[in-house]
Amino acid sequence: MRLEKHLISILESLHDAVIIIIMDSTIVYINKAYTKQFGVPAKKIIGRKLSEIEKNSRILDVLKNGKALINDFSYVHSLNKDVCANITPLMENGEMIGVVTIMKDISEVTNLQKEINNYKHNITELQEKLEQRTFAKLKSQSFPMQKAVGLAKQVADTDATIILHGESGVGKEIFAGAIHEASGRNDKPFVAINMASIPESLFESELFGYEEGSFTGSKRGGKKGLLALADKGTLFLDEIGEMSLNMQSKLLRVIQERKYQKVGGTALHSLDVRIICATHRNLEEMMLAGQFREDLYYRLNVVPIHIPPLRKRKEDLKYLSQNILNELCAKYGKHVWIDDEVLSWMQSYDWPGNVRELSNVLERMIAVCNKPYLSLADIPEPFISDKSLTDPALKERWMLKESPSESIPPLEKLLERLEREHIDYVLKNTKNKTEAIKTLGISRKSFYAKLKKYDMV
Ligand SMILES: Nc1ncnc2c1ncn2[C@@H]1O[C@H](COP(=O)(O)OP(=O)(O)O)[C@@H](O)[C@H]1O
Ligand SMILES: [Mg+2]
User: Fold this and answer.
1) Rounded to the nearest 10 degrees, how much is the dihedral formed by the CA atoms of 144, 146, 149, 151?
2) From ligand 2's centre to the CA of 172, what distance in Å?
3) Higher-confidence position of 61 and 375
């Protein structure tokens, strides 16, 4: 059989697109699959120069330098397609006479890849959100805090109304989010409302929503209320101690009747939400003083949870600051650790603003820090009062912060610290020691020697 005779029919029967050009870039052949995949009829393209149709084509590169490209991915403008191609010089008697290209339309694959990347991105975002809202953040070494978290976990998957008591900044909203996430309502919205920020006159329209034209300045089409937004999910009523008596009675009515009407509307909507509320006030005292309705108090006070202030759980400072630091480092694209002296300052400070204050101070320190660690010198001035920096030796060190010999550790100490931090980080982020050793790129022997040196076994 003379194979050459059949070559054209072989090319025509291929499912991959074939295009052949000669040395002046004139297109001399395309097969049927080319027409089919890219919708280009042979008569429209044969005889034309590729250099005019697609001037950045990879085929032209091969034409120029004679080097084949195998499994080459590229985007072809004139076809508006992503393709994968094998582009090879066509030789005759040792001389290059053109280029033959066999290619596949991979737009669908690329689109799928893009879609997968989008999903991946969404999943990461959702995971981040979930991490924001789980009990993991609330891990604690302190007994009263463990009790609070334990109770929250226990009642999370019920519809019981929960009231979170605790000073401002202790993490009441984090508790509420974690409870929602651990409940059967976690696939429905978590809607937080700060009662202190809703003006009396807007209470009903914000909570219940309103129908179109119900008052001057109302939006066209009306507006959904927060209760409707939280439908079948969890409603977090923050700062309930800040509500006026009038607002309290309106809230009591919906909670009791489990029904409400939009402003300007007649239809009755039913309230299907789990209520979690929070306050830093002493509601019992407010009740005695006639500032909080007794009936509302008893409605809400089904499962009270007391979250202790940070000064009563200083054993958590290390874990908390590490967690917050990790988040901040990701945000600022830095890798910073906390010096032992800073930790001891944290232990001596009373944190009247609780975890919020801790988080703010760390952010302030990290934002301006240009060293790989936070040291005493980075503590903002206002904190260095007699009250917060009680240790006179530490205070003196802070005063001396300008002196380099005082605030800059020797290189060896710094490197050791960095090494320890990094090994610790890798250990926490790998499945087992073997993986950690591989990630660190050191020998098993040296790995164990370091663990021993840094007391990490
Ligand atoms: N356990 C925690 N881990 C990390 N950050 C926390 C924790 N508790 C509170 N925070 C941070 O402190 C700030 C105040 O928390 P929040 O829940 O709003 O407190 P509250 O509602 O009690 O005033 C937020 O920025 C929150 O991210
Ligand atoms: Mg709050």
Assistant:
1) -70
2) 6
3) 61
Chain centroid offset of residue 292 CA: 39
In 3-state terms the chain splits into helix, strand, coil percentages (rounded to 5) of 50, 20, 30
In this predicted model, what pLDDT tens digit does every residue of 100-123 receive, in sequence order?
999 998 888 888 888 898 888 888
Beta bridge partners, 412, equal none
Per the document, the length of the chain is 457
132-172 pLDDT, tens digit each: 668 888 989 999 999 999 999 999 999 999 999 999 999 99
Please give the pLDDT value at position 403.
46
Residue owning the nearest CA to atom 12 of ligand 1: 356
Q: Hey, whose CA ends up nearest to atom 7 of ligand 1?
A: 171
> Which atom of ligand 1 has the smallest separation from the CA of 316?
1
Q: Which residue is closest in CA terms to ligand 1's atom 23?
A: 169
pLDDT at position 50 over 90: yes
**Rounded alpha-carbon distances, angstroms, from residue 254 to 26, 201, 272, 303:** 79, 17, 11, 19
Residue 341: the pLDDT is 82
Least-confidence region, from 12-21, 87-96, 216-225, 310-319: 216-225
Q: How confident is the model at residue 260 (pLDDT cuts 50, 70, 90)?
A: very high
Residue whose tokens read 């050009």 = 21
Map tokens 């301006």 to a residue: 368
- Taking the C-alpha atoms of residue 131 and residue 3, their distance in angstroms, rounded to an integer, is 65
CA-proximal residue: ligand 1, atom 16 (nearest): 171
* Distance (Å) from CA 389 to ligand 2 centroid: 27
Environment class of 125 (CB within 10 Å of its CB; exposed 0-12, middle 13-18, buried 19+): exposed
Do 202 and 241 form a contact (C-beta atoms < 8 A)? no
Please provide the distance, in angstroms rounded to a whole number, between the alpha carbons at the two ends of the chain.
Answer: 74
Token digits of residue 295: 């009936």
In the block, tokens 């009441």 appear at 172
Q: Alpha-carbon distance 376 to 386, whole Å?
A: 15
Does ligand 1 come within 6 angstroms of the Cβ of 174?
A: yes
User: What mean pLDDT value characterizes the chain?
Assistant: 89
- SS3 for 90? strand
Amino acid 369: pLDDT: 84
**Residue 264 and residue 46: Cα distance in Å, rounded?**
71
Expressed in angstroms and rounded, the spacing between residue 206 Cα and the centre of ligand 2 is 19
Q: Report the pLDDT averaged over residues 366-386.
A: 80
